């Protein structure tokens, strides 16, 4: 496979500090169920997707920070995130993510107007629920503010709806990774998405390969590639095999026909 040239060199040589929070596993599971109720992921696969999400978020924040600094602003605006998406994300994602941003913002405004009409009797919802998203906007907002506090000297404020734009971007990226990884699982007639399926998805899709090569730091790449190696390959030659639990025979392998239904 031909190597894809990076769209932009973002922290390729230096280690990027990841700002991590509590696990996003339950949100990623909910996202996978919204795509296909039969999709299942292992805990290691969920951890890898989290690494990809937060590292890509850091790369987008770096570009948005440069954009705001060049404009001599102290506030990072939604248009800075949109510019970072156009610079970093390739191919189909570059077209679909801005459309998803506009749709989520319009839905957010519409839901806020309806809530104001209902008054105090309106049911309380999170910002993600109002915008029709699954990943938490509040957690992404916190990450962005911590990033500005630790990595930026000139840009110190976060504009309204900038966190919403970044959350839409990360959710679309996570959905694409899960979908393509699930396609790899269906080809092998298996049930669970494992780390090796995610690695094959990253290497097989041109858009994901570009992001993996230019937005993800070398340290994270090594972690993903190491986790994708089966346990048996890591054992030394001549070692005794340890008996493991037999796979459950009750679960029927998925096929392309069952997935389409």
Give a verbal description of the structure:
The chain has helices at 25-35, 43-70, 78-88, 91-118, 127-131, 137-151, 162-187, 195-204, 206-214, 218-227, 231-234, 256-260, and strands spanning 40-41, 75-76, 157-158, 192-193. It is mostly helical and 261 residues long. The strands form two sheets. A two-stranded parallel sheet has the order 1-4. Strands 2-3 form a two-stranded parallel sheet. Helix 3 (78-88) packs antiparallel against helix 4. The longest helix has 28 residues, at 43-70. The two termini are 33 Å apart. Mean pLDDT is 80; it is low at 1-15 and 240-251.
Provide a compact summary of the structure.
With 261 residues, this protein is mostly helical. It has helices at residues 25-35, 43-70, 78-88, 91-118, 127-131, 137-151, 162-187, 195-204, 206-214, 218-227, 231-234, 256-260, and strands at residues 40-41, 75-76, 157-158, 192-193.
Query: How is the quaternary structure best described?
Result: single chain
Supply Rg: 20 Å
**Beta-strand percent range:** under 5%
Helix share bin? 55-70%
**How is the largest sheet built, in terms of strand order?**
1-4
Count of extended strands: 4
Could you state the order of secondary-structure elements as H and E? Answer: HEHEHHHHEHEHHHHH
Distance between the termini: 33 Å
Q: Helical element count?
A: 12
Structural classification: mainly alpha
Mean pLDDT rating: 80
Point out poorly predicted stretches: 1-15, 240-251
